[in-house]
Design a protein that fits this description.
By secondary structure, chain A is mainly α. Chain A contains 12 helices and no strands. The N terminus of chain A is likely disordered. In chain B, helix 5 crosses helix 6 and helix 8 packs antiparallel against helix 10. The N terminus of chain B is likely disordered. Classes of the chains: A mainly alpha (275), B alpha/beta (267). The structure holds adenosine-5'-triphosphate and magnesium ion (MG). Chain B: GO terms for molecular function: ATP binding; ATP hydrolysis activity.
Chain lengths: 275, 267
């Protein structure tokens, strides 16, 4: 019980994401604050469910019970198995492709002119509108879902990486040149580490967008996985189950982002771990 | 073989001073700003030479041309008799803004020049530790730059330049972002380092006192376009107490002489 409350609450309160000091020295207070925030959120939800604000809005406790029901009958696991494949594939591809492409565009003028305008347009456009088009071309399989993830995730990753690489600290570049760093050393030892905070900000946004992409694809085109589970329970008016499914994917998305931040601080920017 | 022996033999002309860096006819124009015009200079081996001059006269430009970081429009730079136009292992630069990698510890920053050369990790960290101690930062090996004061950061920059074992150290106003106490301490360290390390220092500064205090030779540059206006060799005995040097007659006279020379540019 306690575990699932925490999961639900974390999904709602984005505190661990924005709060950099969570990794810092004063541990006790943020934890207390977070617990309060979680409890508050659960309380408000419970009250709202009891009023009720809408006949389709279940209480917090009903949602928790439904969540365990979904876990027990295996439908949640089956749904995730089908959703996670295109999601993970799409996100990983977008991350590598996006960081690679963004870096190249940041370093190479011609690449910048060729590629960046496309992604600026993509980012400005309501790309979700392309998803039915993707289905039209690629059918309703795994390819379509993966593409949907990538359409949403890629632009922000490319653009952030490009911007970070373009704005790299010039005096560090000169320093590296003065100690006879090669082109490759300059990129790997100066440019990428210096750009990593902004690149990771892009990755976090990209991963979040990837979740949107996969759920949209499952709601709009291929009735499978989590999207299907949501649609199915809505059609049967099992609103507690529907909300439990939605909350679970929000929680998963949040946890993924928290993990990403942990990796960033651990591996790329140890100095920001706090003194 | 015979030719070599002949060349090394006694020569009728007086022995020229042994110059490690030779600058010939260097000029540089940025757009329509003429920064340097026809600079001819020799930097004697094992000495500390200061470049002194009013702001904007091209001191940094000249230093970066010697470092191979900026291309001159005309003229040549030779190190140990060999023409250079790019950075090389015989020169190391200490940057005015420190240029430390914020994500790397003091040790990694100091060892960075060696890391780029492919020295193995154990060896370069050993070297780094030695120079960290040499500049007085022992105990701070695992700190990050943001945990250090400005003076300490500049010491990291200096240790990094020392650790690649270059013959020539190029320092661009290394103390300008450092407070007065640290500056004094640093100047004394530099005098000590020059004696111990047997390296050639080329040092850019704004401060006449600093230049006279630490230099074997001072090159005065005129305002834009920068030209060599005067070369002064303050012969100051630095073996004694630093406080005494600051009150030394000869020291004070030299400072005054240079000030008289520079005053015309300020008025
Ligand atoms: N990258 C650049 N582009 C255009 N002009 C430049 C550039 N770098 C320097 N200059 C100009 O060249 C002249 C000499 O600059 P430099 O930085 O060498 O002077 P400086 O003697 O080091 O000055 P300071 O004592 O203020 O550091 C200045 O007038 C400056 O405006
Ligand atoms: Mg300067």
């Amino acid at each position: 019980m306690a575990v699932s409350i925490r999961t639900d609450g974390e999904a709602a309160s984005l505190a661990p994401l924005s709060n950099r000091s969570a990794t810092g020295a004063s541990w006790d207070q943020p934890i207390l604050l977070r617990l309060v925030s979680i409890a508050l959120f659960a309380g408000v939800w419970e009250v709202a469910g009891r009023i009720p604000v809408s006949f389709a809005f279940p209480t917090f406790s009903d949602t928790i019970i439904a969540f365990f029901g979904l876990l027990a009958d295996g439908s949640l696991a089956t749904a995730y198995l089908s959703t996670l494949q295109p999601l993970v594939l799409g996100v990983v591809l977008s991350a590598f492709l996006g960081v690679g492409l963004g870096t190249i565009c940041g370093l190479w003028r011609t690449g910048e002119w060729l590629v960046i305008p496309v992604f600026i347009v993509l980012q400005a456009a309501p790309v979700a509108a392309f998803i039915p088009m993707v289905t039209f071309v690629y059918g309703i399989g795994m390819t379509a879902k993966t593409l949907a993830v990538m359409i949403l995730a890629l632009p922000v990753i490319v653009l952030n990486t490009y911007k970070a690489v373009r704005n790299v600290n010039g005096s560090l570049l000169v320093m590296c040149r003065s100690f006879m760093g090669t082109r490759w050393q300059t990129v790997s030892k100066i440019i990428l580490p210096d750009a990593s905070p902004v690149i990771f900000a892009g990755l976090r946004l990209g991963v979040a967008a990837g979740f949107v992409g996969v759920v949209l694809a499952e709601l709009l085109i291929t009735p499978t996985g989590i999207g299907d589970l949501i649609t199915f329970h809505r059609s049967r008016a099992d609103y507690a189950e529907m909300y439990a499914t939605i909350a679970s994917i929000i929680a998963l998305s949040t946890l993924t982002l928290v993990f990403l931040q942990w990796v960033e601080v651990r591996v790329f920017r140890p100095e920001s771990r706090g003194a | 073989m015979g030719a070599t022996a002949l060349r090394n033999g006694p020569s009728p002309v007086p022995a020229p001073i042994d110059s490690i860096v030779e600058v010939r006819g260097i000029s540089k124009t940025y757009g329509n700003v003429e920064a340097l015009r026809g600079i001819d200079l020799d930097f004697p081996r094992g000495k500390l030479t200061s470049l002194l001059g009013p702001s904007g006269c091209g001191k940094t430009t000249l230093l970066k041309i010697i470092a191979g970081l900026i291309r001159a429009d005309g003229g040549t730079v030779a190190i140990n008799g060999k023409r250079v136009s790019a950075p090389g292992p015989e020169r190391a630069f200490v940057f005015q803004d420190f240029a430390l990698m914020p994500w790397a510890t003091v040790t990694r920053n100091v060892a960075f020049g060696l890391e780029l050369r492919g020295t193995n990790k154990a060896e370069r960290e050993e070297t780094a530790r030695r120079y960290i101690a040499e500049v007085g930062l022992a105990g701070f090996e695992d700190k990050y730059p943001h945990e250090l004061s400005g003076g300490m950061r500049q010491r990291v920059g200096l240790a990094r330049a020392l650790s690649v074992d270059a013959d020539v150290l190029l320092l661009d106003e290394p103390f300008s972002a450092v407070d007065e106490q640290n500056r004094r301490k640093f100047q004394e360290d530099l005098i000590r380092l020059r004696t111990n390390q047997n390296k050639t220092f080329i040092f850019v500064t704004h401060s006449i006192e600093e230049a006279v205090y630490i230099s074997d030779r001072i090159v005065l540059l005129s305002p834009r376009p920068g030209r060599v206006s005067q070369i002064i060799e303050p012969e100051i005995d630095r073996s004694g107490d630093p406080e005494r040097i600051h009150r030394d007659r000869h020291y004070l006279d030299t400072v005054d002489e240079i000030w008289q020379g520079l005053k015309q540019y300020v008025e």
